[in-house]
Write a structure and sequence with these properties.
The chain is globular, with a radius of gyration of 16 Å. It is 53% helix and 14% strand. The chain has a 4-stranded mixed beta sheet. The chain has 176 residues and is α+β, with helices and mostly antiparallel strands. It has 7 helices and 4 strands, in the order αββααβαααβα.
Length: 176
């Protein structure tokens, strides 16, 4: 198996394990967005880390109420800074070992994000998210430091389809 295919499978398995845990942790709220961040620029030997961001209707409403200015709903919907943060979820342990200690340890960040997108596409094909959530949720990546807006939009559409990505695509000026 090629290392990119192996990483895609590891990310897919991590998400299959981790997303039900997110539902359990945030189940009292209506999850609307899950965003995945891969980073190897933390200054700790350039090892990769993963962070998952979760947004809910309730969190977005709270954040908007706390904003003294005219709150932009798209910023509060899609900007990871405004979401709940889950640093280094346990479900990514095998993925991180593969990236940081395995033969894929020199993998570029754009390749890692491509594997994340591929894993989400596979989970969509398998209807995994439909089996976990009562409604559609947007899956995103926090890759704006690596990719331009056009590439980010392409990834979002690949992971979610055009209809579900519509609000994200039409409002990128608010949060990217």
């Amino acid at each position: 198996m090629h290392y990119k295919d192996e990483l895609t499978e590891l990310v897919k398995e991590a998400l299959k394990e981790g997303i039900p845990a997110l539902v359990k942790d945030y189940g009292d709220e209506d999850i609307t967005v899950i965003s995945i961040d891969a980073d190897n620029t933390t200054g700790f030997g350039d090892d990769y880390s993963f962070t998952v961001f979760v947004n809910t209707e309730e969190n977005q409403e709270r954040r908007m109420k706390d904003d003294d200015d005219d709150a932009d709903p798209w910023y509060y919907r899609f900007c990871e800074v405004e979401m709940y943060i889950v640093p280094d979820p346990d479900c990514f342990e095998k993925t991180l070992t593969f990236l940081n200690e395995g033969y894929a340890s020199g993998m570029a960040m754009n390749e890692v994000y491509e594997c994340i997108v591929n894993a989400v596409e596979k989970l969509r094909e398998e209807k995994f998210f439909d089996s976990v959530f009562p409604h559609d949720i947007l899956i995103a990546i926090n890759g704006s430091e690596v990719f331009g807006v056009d590439d980010m939009v392409k990834f979002i559409v690949r992971m979610n389809g055009e209809a579900l990505s519509k609000d994200y695509v039409e409002n990128t000026d608010s949060f990217i």
